[in-house]
């Protein structure tokens, strides 16, 4: 059993498959505020997570703050697949039923294809990203028509520095990319290792957007860069509260790109139809909100590269007074503006910018053409008459007799 601290303040234990070792594998996922009980040995039939309580009676503050429905007139995330590399995702909760694809499990439950969530973390993340409407509860995901591709690498939300974990996460990222993920959500933190960075670079080269939690710090712990969020090209997400202020446990740093709700979180439970409350929140849930918005952007602008998507998300965020800082990056993500804004300049328009508008048809066009011709003919006739008037006057005076040429003077 190997434990150690990580920047996000969580612990996970690695599972080797031997019964004498614990079943825990864990990457710092980040992030739940409550300590979860370790799963039973692999020989026992797993009960995939804990049941939750009653659903919310009003929309959570995060949904009211972000108002994703304002962007749903353009897109709801249809056709986009978001890989959730986490603790697994329940496929039976009403919010997620029919939205969860068969995935993979790198933590000992391969036969369940990533659809068993013993910790309850990945299911909440997936519900935030793609929970569907019409379940009888005022709750939905940011992109309710996106699909979830679960890849299970975590068995709990405790923290560890297991040397095997970065390699497992790297395998999960590559597997997700090779199975047609458009966005990869990494609500976890682990060690900085070359194989992990290589997997991130592989995803970016394949035009896959990568979103990661900026990490959570423990009390009296100094901010340290969190990986994979701190890698170039990854959209690193910090947490804010209902007033828009930076959550104190959210790691700050120059690598932070954007922020989203990360406190007082609620989401679907992995077992049954109930909901779990996470009052301590965490940047893992903030990352899920940004992944949902990234899914909306990919659906509305499929031609954009990961760099373009990151630029769009950060430049349309609700900026802090100083424009950008180490706590919230460019500010709180804004779904409507991210989907609808036209970015760029007149001489260098962004990909997908609107074409020049086509002038509307003129219903009186033919009448106008006739009027122009009548006016032209009338002007011509008037000119002829004016020119003929002196001739007519002289003709009347002579009685219409031809004039005679005067005799030439003598030389």
Automatic annotation (TrEMBL):
Coiled-coil segments on the chain, per record: none
Choose any GO biological process term that the UniProt entry carries and state it.
Answer: proteolysis
- Record's signal peptide: 1-44
Asked if the record carries the keyword Cell cycle, the reply is no
InterPro entries in UniProt: Peptidase_S8/S53_dom, Peptidase_S8/S53_dom_sf, Peptidase_S8_Asp-AS, Peptidase_S8_His-AS, Peptidase_S8_subtilisin-like, Peptidase_S8_subtilisin-rel, T7SS_pept_S8A_mycosin
The record lists the membrane-crossing segments as: 370-392
Q: Name one GO molecular function term.
A: serine-type endopeptidase activity
- One Pfam short name: Peptidase_S8
Q: Where is this region: Disordered?
A: 42-62
Q: Report the membrane topology from the UniProt record.
A: Single-pass membrane protein
Keyword terms: Cell membrane, Hydrolase, Membrane, Protease, Serine protease, Signal, Transmembrane, Transmembrane helix
Gene3D superfamilies tied to this protein: Peptidase S8/S53 domain
Q: Where is the active site?
A: 86, 121, 284
**Principal location listed in the UniProt entry:** membrane
Cellular localization per UniProt = Cell membrane
State any GO CC term. plasma membrane
In this chain the Peptidase S8/S53 domain maps to 77-331
Family affiliation: Belongs to the peptidase S8 family.
**Which protein is depicted?**
Type VII secretion-associated serine protease mycosin
């Amino acid at each position: 059993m190997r434990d150690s601290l990580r920047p996000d303040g969580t612990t996970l234990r690695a599972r080797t498959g031997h019964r004498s070792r614990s079943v825990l594998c864990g990457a710092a996922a980040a992030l739940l505020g409550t300590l979860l009980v370790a799963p039973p040995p692999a020989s026992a039939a797993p009960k995939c997570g804990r049941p939750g309580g009653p659903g919310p009676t009003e929309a959570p503050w995060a949904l009211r703050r972000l108002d994703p429905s304002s962007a749903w007139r353009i897109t709801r995330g249809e056709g986009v697949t978001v890989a959730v590399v986490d603790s697994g995702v329940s496929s039976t909760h009403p919010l997620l039923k029919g939205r969860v694809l068969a995935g993979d499990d790198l933590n000992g439950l391969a036969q369940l294809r990533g659809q068993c969530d013993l910790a309850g973390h990945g299911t909440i993340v997936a519900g935030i990203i793609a929970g569907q409407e019409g379940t009888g509860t005022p709750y939905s995901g940011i992109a309710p028509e996106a699909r979830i591709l679960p890849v299970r690498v975590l068995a709990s939300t405790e923290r560890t520095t297991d040397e095997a974990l970065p390699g497992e996460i790297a395998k999960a990222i590559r597997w997700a990319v090779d199975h047609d993920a458009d966005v990869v959500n990494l609500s976890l933190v682990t060690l900085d290792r070359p194989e992990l960075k290589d997997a991130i670079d592989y995803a970016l080269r394949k035009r896959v957007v990568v979103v990661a939690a900026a990490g959570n710090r423990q009390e009296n712990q100094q901010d340290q860069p969190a990986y994979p969020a701190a890698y170039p090209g990854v959209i690193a997400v910090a947490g804010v509260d209902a007033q828009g202020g930076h959550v104190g446990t959210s790691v700050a740093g120059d690598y932070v790109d954007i922020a989203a709700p990360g406190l007082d979180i609620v989401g679907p439970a992995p077992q049954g139809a109930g909901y779990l409350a996470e009052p301590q929140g965490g940047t893992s849930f903030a990352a899920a909100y940004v992944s949902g918005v990234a899914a909306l952007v990919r659906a509305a602008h499929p031609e954009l590269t990961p760099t373009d998507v990151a630029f769009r998300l950060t430049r349309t965020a609700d900026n802090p007074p100083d424009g950008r800082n180490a706590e919230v990056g460019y500010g709180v993500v804004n779904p409507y503006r991210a989907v609808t804004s036209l970015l760029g300049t007149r001489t260098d328009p962004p990909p997908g910018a609107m074409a020049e508008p086509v002038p509307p048809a003129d219903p009186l066009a033919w009448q106008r053409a006739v009027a122009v011709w009548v006016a032209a003919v009338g002007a011509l006739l008037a000119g002829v008459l004016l020119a003929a008037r002196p001739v007519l006057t002289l003709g009347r005076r002579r009685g219409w007799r031809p004039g005679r040429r005067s005799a030439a003077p003598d030389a």
